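Allow me, if you will, to draw on your knowledge of protein folds for a short while. I am sending you one protein, given as its amino acid sequence and as whole-number tokens for its backbone shapes. Kindly check, if you would, that the fold set down in the tokens agrees with what the sequence suggests. The record follows directly beneath this note:
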Amino acid sequence: MPLLLLLLGLTGGVVATPLTAQERPRVHIVATGGTISNRDGGRLTADEIVGLVPAADRYAALTAEQFSNTASGALTIAQYIALARRVNTLFRADSTLSGVIVTMGTDTMEELAYFLHLTVRDPRPVVVVGAMRNPSQVGFEGPANLLGGVRVAADPAARGVGTVVVLNDEINAARDVVKTDARRLHTFNSREVGVLGVIDTDRVVWYRRTVQRHSARSEFDVFAFDSLPRVDILLAYQGAPGDLFNAAVDAGAKGIIVAAAGGGAISGTQSLGQRYAVDQGVFVMTATRTGAGRIPPSGPLRDSTNTETLRRRTFTLAAEDLEPLKARLLLMLGLATTTDRDALQRFFREY
């Protein structure tokens, strides 16, 4: 057995009798680019990425397609919608497909993963995989991450988990995962709630499930719209100017996420900016910039009697425990569905 194949086999699990072609689960890879494909002299294609994991045929039969081949930060919201449509179509067209892997860059991985978590309406898993080092660097971990992704996508126990991020032999839920380090391989984690599971030599080990709504239980239909309303994020910091709210509103924002300090504090003249946004009928949502913790909502509108208070509360929302980047995506999807304040707040309670 060639040394590379032997090593990959040992990292993937205990050597066992290979499955026949008929026994192997089918896993489809959708390549979008990112560091995992970004070798010196040109990016790897989808087929070349499949070639990184010769040991994968022990666990699944792989097929692949090229969706894009670019940095994750270059992907647009229009491409997010198109990718979600493509994955939905793959599942609808093939009942024998075990799961789909999306390869991409890690810089905005938590955002695209959460978008797919909300919009791929199927119980089969979507596994997002990338790499912190590129194929031309010593210690390129792309093959190990991809093999781990194949094992998760092929695992029957992955049904119902929604979209997950797999790197460094860990499985993180798309809703909870964040990138925490610009360089290190262990960059992705799920804050205080922990990983969903790990990928060990003998099997994929699951520890928990995400109880919030997602995937097959989602209300968001990406075939019902071609674009999403603009939602911007503004950071609270000492002396922050409120006129940035005015600029966002005047540029066409339908929602603004405030990455507030602590439990919701703002600074400078931001309160004036918030008032301007509300007066223009723009939703203002408070999230926390701390990376963890919950911003509770103010309650249903029926409890308000004062006219000014009612209007302010009509257009103010709380992000619950979603960090600002993910709150933005959920609010965009919500605003494409409804402009009812209580309905929008419900999305953040349930998703």
User: Anything to note?
Assistant: The chain is about 30% helix and 20% strand. The longest helix spans residues 77-93.
